[in-house]
Amino acid sequence: MQFTTEALVEILSNHALWLTDSNQGERADLRGAFLSRANLIDADLTSANLYGANLRRANLRRANLTDAHLTDAHLTGANLIDANLTRANLSNACLPGTNLTGADLSGAKLINADLINADLINANLTGANLTGANLRGAYLTDADLTGANLSGANGAVDLGYPDGWRAVGWWHKGEPWVRVGCRTMSLTEAYAYWANKDDRREVMAALTYFEAVAAVRAETPKTEAA
């Protein structure tokens, strides 16, 4: 379904009323809506229904999508810089190449979401459910993955909590990278940094494990970072 600019403005206006008082206005129902390249900067879409919506290359910078329903939504190449996606449902959503720099995805559902080459630099993924998500080639530099569920995730390796620090490994431009606690670096740099630190032997063990996984996956280029 395609909306005119005027119709979309009216929907957002009614949604704003609904957020203030559920007896007024109406919750935004944009299921299956065609919103490709739509300008939604700073839009308040809290709890909006965007199931299966086409938001390819839409500008959602700083948009509030808290508790929004985005299951099966298409967000390829969308701008979600600094967007609030707290507890949003993005299960099965298509997000390849999406810019999520600084986005808040804490508690979000990203089950089986396609995040190939997505930019997640400085993103907050605390407690996010990334079960089965495809993170191949994603940029995870400085992303907070504390408590995130990476079971079956493609493109990332959950290294647990060695020495009490959350640790995750992934591939960036064909090279293995890790984030341990608040430090992000290549695997080579990580070895050099934590070498000979007796109080970080578990971290070194985690790096060794990730190196072994990286070596196995490097043997099959088609599934590199898989």
Helix content: 10-25%
Radius of gyration, taken over Cα atoms and rounded to an integer in Å: 19 Å
What class would the helix/strand composition place it in?
alpha+beta
Mean pLDDT: 91
Number of helices: 3
What would you call the shape?
elongated
Tally of DSSP β-strands:
4
Report the portion of residues in β strands. 5-15%
Provide the low-confidence segments as ranges: 219-226
End-to-end gap: 35 Å
Series of H and E elements? HEEEEHH
> Biggest sheet: strands side by side, in what order?
1-2-3-4
Q: Largest sheet, described in full?
A: 4 strands, antiparallel
Q: Could you name the key traits of this structure?
A:
4 strands; 3 helices; alpha+beta; single chain; elongated; disordered C terminus; 226 residues
Task: Outline the structure in words.
This protein has 226 residues and is α+β, with helices and mostly antiparallel strands. β3 (175-180) and β4 (183-186) form a beta hairpin. The chain starts with a helix and ends in an 8-residue tail after the last helix. The chain contains 3 helices and 4 strands. The longest helix has 18 residues, at 201-218.
Summarize the structure.
With about 230 residues, this protein is α+β, with helices and mostly antiparallel strands. The chain has helices at about 5-20, 185-195, 200-220; strands at about 155-160, 165-170, 175-180, 185. The chain has a four-stranded antiparallel beta sheet.
